[in-house]
Specification:
This protein is of the alpha+beta class. It has one domain (2-78): Glutaredoxin (3-Layer(aba) Sandwich), CATH 3.40.30.10. The chain has 3 helices and 2 strands, in the order ααββα. It has helices at residues 2-16, 34-39, 67-78; strands spanning 47-51, 57-62. The termini are far apart. 4% of the residues are buried.
Length: 80
Amino acid sequence: MACVMSKPIVDGIEKDYAGTVRVLHIDARNPDNSAIAAQFGLRMTPTYIVFDQHAAEQYRSTGSINRRQFDGLVAGLLGK
């Protein structure tokens, strides 16, 4: 249920940060995605992971996403 409730927030993030932040949607329940789910340790859905420009994980959250927290995190990573 958290996936459905968070979709408008994630869609807004994708739109508002287009060209700056890349948003990837991975259905971890789909067997075709089992390798990438294992690689990133996706055990619960939804899981949100933010990487910096060097592909180092900076943030991980499961469940509903907090837009203000995400905006602050991105601003910090972008030096704004």
